[in-house]
Amino acid sequence: MTDFGKLPGGLVPALLTAEEQDVVWFLGSLVRIRLGGDATGGQLAVVEHENERGFGTPVHTHHAADETFFVLDGELRVEVDGQISTAGAGSVAFLPRGLSHSILITSPQARYLTLHNPAGFEEFTRAVGTPRADMPPPDLQALKAIAAGYDIDIIGPPPRL
């Protein structure tokens, strides 16, 4: 994280490179914690989500934080307190704390940001999710056996950097 020095009020500007951002598998989605409360004095978290058609969140309520959705690509069905709306690329939805809500991806794929004020959701994401680096590689023998049934030969493991 780049250190810009301390500003009046105790907050410190933050710049995190992609390599410094945590990436986890969270409820079946690839999630990038772009900015967490540790970098914002607990004021804000920015999380990027990526998944495919049919993925949805459980209906839930944030009691201590507001949540804003910004759709980067694709389309979401957003349900808030029983009202359903569609949010396509470029759409923004602000959901004040205390409202029950869920989303469902209706396009083939979608990418969206969630902003959480105050921060804290990113810690829940880390607690529930699995770090992408900790995901085990595929079982090559099982993959070969399944692939053979589809007339595909698996020759060896994927290349590594």
Automatic annotation (TrEMBL):
Coiled coil: none annotated. It comes from the Bacteria. SUPFAM superfamilies: RmlC-like cupins. Residues 55-107 form the Cupin type-2 domain. Pfam families: Cupin_2. PANTHER family: PUTATIVE (AFU_ORTHOLOGUE AFUA_8G07350)-RELATED. This is Cupin domain-containing protein. It comes from Kribbella qitaiheensis.
